[in-house]
Amino acid sequence: MCRWLAYTGSPVTLDELLYKPENSLVMQSRHSRLGVEPMNGDGFGVGWYDDHSPIPGLFRSIEPAWSDRNLRELSQHIRSGMVIAHIRATTGTAVQQTNCHPFRHGQWLFAHNGVINGFSTLKRALRMAVDPALYPLIEGSTDSETLFYLALTFGLTDDPPAAVAAAVGLIEDVALRHGVAYPVQGTFATTDGQRLWTFRYSSEGRSRSLFRNRDVAVLRAQYPDNPVLHGLSDDTRIVVSEPLGDLKGAWLEVPESTCLVVEDGREELVPFAPVLTTA
After folding, report:
1. 2-271: CATH homologous superfamily?
2. Residue 2 falls in the annotated catalytic set
3. 58 within 8 A of 102, measured Cβ to Cβ
4. Catalytic-role residue among 1, 2, 71, 189
5. Which end of the chain is more exposed for a tag (fewer CB within 10 A), N or C?
6. pTM of the entire structure?
């Protein structure tokens, strides 16, 4: 399907997230441990925030992450305290830059691992539900970008959990009317550069994997000789499709049907359920 990573904390270079961990995102692009398939080579993308603009930087490519020399070069020089990175395994749509995650609208980023089942059948009805002012901004052909613009239509910039719940509810309602079972599968991440919202949900109740790191201060006390932990700030929060390493106790699974909200190092887990919405 795909793999993604969201980071918030003190600024780090991108290679600290994408290359250096034992099971880094670039490593997962060839050898995913928990994905539907081990290889995610249909492009990648990374979005980051800095002090120059509230609009995040965005770099996307159709090259496999493991072989893109530009990504390796840039990652050693870009520093950020809020990052979303994604490696893609297409579920049928074209391998092109506009289909690579994360997607950007203004100061917002969005990434998805999963699928809208029966999307070819549901696509017209779902896209017709997008706000007419937003519709022309859709650049690609993926179900993920459609989900993002539905969430924007339902107020993502004001209340992300409610907007994602409404978007998922609409998809499930349209799927029911078209005879498509279990339409939504996935994990989602979105941020405005200040707060991070991540979601784990599927219509079937068997979502793709999602993990968050244990409190860094606790891990530092548990592993006082681990140099990696001493390089992380106490407010570091990393949410990932699969753990970046095998350090015992470092990773906690995000529960099924849950929204995780992170701000200034504080996190909150709240139940997530779709809200019935009709087109």
Report:
1. Aminohydrolase, N-terminal nucleophile (Ntn) domain (3.60.20.10)
2. yes
3. yes
4. 2
5. C
6. 0.94
